[in-house]
Amino acid sequence: MWVQPSLLPAAEGAAIEKDTRFVLDYPEAELVFGLVFAVGTDYKPALDYLKDQIKLSGYAADSLQLSDWFGESIERLGFQHALPTEPEYERIASRISAGNKIRATTGRQDILALIAASKIFSTREIGEDENPIAHKRRAHILVSLKRPEEVESLRKIYGPGFFLIGIFADESERIDFLTNRKGLEKEQAASLINIDQKQTAEEYGQRTRDTFQMADLFVGVADKEYEKGLQRFLRLIFGDPFITPSRDEHSMFLAYAASLRSGDLARQVGAALTCAQGDLISLGCNDVPSPGGGLYCADDGDDDARDHKLRKDSNDARKDEIIDDVILAFSKKFLPTRDPEEILKEARPLLRETLVSDVTEFGRAVHAEMDAIITAGRTGVSFSNSTLYTTTFPCHTCTRHIIAAGVKRVVYIEPYPKSLAKELHSDAIRISGEKQKNDRRVPFEPFLGIGPRRFFDLFSMKLSSGYVIERKHDGTVVDWDQRRNSKPRVPMAPTSYLEREQLIQITLNSVFSIKREENANDAKTTGIAGQERRGVLDTPREDSPPSRKVARMEDRRTGDNLAAGDDRK
Q1: E strands within 373-523?
Q2: CA angle at residue 76 from 73 to 82, to 5 degrees?
Q3: 217-220 and 162-168 strand pairing
Q4: Per the confidence metrics, is the pTM higher than 0.70?
Q5: What does the pLDDT look like over 194-238, one tens digit per residue?
Q6: Residue 130: which residues within 8 A CB-CB, separation 6 or more?
Q7: C-alpha 72, offset from chain centre
C-alpha cells in the first residue's frame, strides 16, 4: 500500500519523527464515533461489536455515555432535577427532560456535544510545552446524540475523524424491547417513542429523527444486521482497498448526486430508479418542469424560470392566502366589530402551526420520485419491478404514482413527517416491520449501509481527501490485513493548519540548509558560489517575523529531542 513519504530525507528527518507536530501523516490518529438511535433500540450488542472491530484494528475503544454527566451539569447550572434509576419509564423520561433543561438553561442546542468534547480533553496528558498530547490508536464512542447541532459541532471539532453511526430498529421492535425487556406499559412505550423522535413544541427538545438522517453509516438491529455493516465500515475507515459499494449504497449515492441538481428553495431531494440487477434506469430531482420535457437547469440561462429565479415560493404564497381567507371569513361572521388587520396579525401565527402548514400541492416543482418515473417513461425504458431510491421518504402524492407505476421496492433515508402515505395507502404499501404472509404490498424500507456523505473518502482509491490506496503493487495484489495494516484512511490531524504551515517552514529550512552546504562544497571545485543558487523557496531573511517564530519552534524542538526519555510520537 502507498504510504505518504516523510517530508525530510530519512537521516535529517529522524530527529523530528518523535513529535507529531512535525509530520503530515497520522497513522495512529484518534477516531471519534457518535451513535444515534431512537429510544427503545437495543443498541448495546451493536456497541459491543463496534468495540470489538475497533480492537481488531489495533485500537483501544472507550464509550462515553452523555447522560452520565447530567447530574454534574445540573449541579453546575444550579437547578434541581431528579434522575431516578427506576422504574424504567421514569428513568428514561427524566433523562429526556434533563437533557432538554440543560440545553435550555445554557441556551445551546449543542451543549451535550461540547461537554463530551471537554471530557475527552480531560483525559489528555499535557506535554512539556504545555500543549495537550493526542492519544495514539484510541477511539472514543459517544452514546448517544439527539440533536443535529450536536453532530454539526462534533464535525467542526474533529473534522474527518468524526463518524456518525445510525442504529435502526423499527417501531414494533422498539415497543417490544421496552415492554417485554424493560417492563413498560405499551402506552408508556409509545409516549416515549413519540417524544424522542421530535419534540416540536420544545425549542431545546430532542430531534432524534432529524439527527439520525445525518449518519455516515446506517445499520439495523434485526437479525444482527449491524455486524456486516460495522465490519465493512471499520475496514474502510482503516484503509481496506478491496471493499466496494453494495447495490443499495451505490444507488443511494446516485440519488444524492441527482439531488444536487435541484434549485428548490426548501430542500434538495434526489431519486434513482434501478432494475433488479442494480443497473440505473433513470435519475430525478425536485425542480420546476421545463417546456418540451424535463426540468429547468443551470444550462437554460435567461430561460431558467425556477422559483429561485422568480424569488417566490408559490406553495408558501398560496398557504398564506388560504390562512388569510379563513381568518377574514371567520372574523367577518363572528367578530364584525374588530379591525381585520389586527385579527390577521394575531391569528396568522396560530394557523401556521396547524395542518395548513403541511399543504404541498401548490408548489411548482416536480418531485424527485416523479421526475425519475417520468424520465424513464419519456425515454421509453421499462421500470416495472424496479427499485426506487429516494433521499427523502415519498409524499402521499408521489406514493400513489409509485404504486401505480409498478415499482417493486422503495428505499429512503430522510423521513418526511408531512407524508400521509401510510395512512392513505396502507393497503398497497408497508413500512419496515409490517410484513404479512403472502404480502403483495410495496415495501418502503429505511436505507442500511454506508451513507453518501463519506462515499469518496472511503471508496475512492485516488479522490479521497485522505491518502491514496493501491490494490496491486508492481503487478502483485496487495495483501491487506486488519490487524497488521489498519491505518485511518482520512486521519484527524492533531495540529492546526497554522502549525502545519510552520512545519513546512521548518522542513524547508532544513532541506535548503543541507543543499546549501552541498552547493558550497561544489563551489570549491566549480567556482560557482552556492549563494547564487538560492530560489524563491529558500529560507527567508533571518530577521523576518516568520524566521523568528520558526527559530523559536526549532529551539523548542531541539530541547524536546534532547530531553531524556522523550518518546512522544
Answers
A1: 387-392, 409-414, 429-431, 442-446, 449-450, 472-473, 476-477
A2: 55
A3: parallel
A4: yes
A5: 888 777 678 999 999 999 999 999 999 999 999 999 999 999 999
A6: none
A7: 29
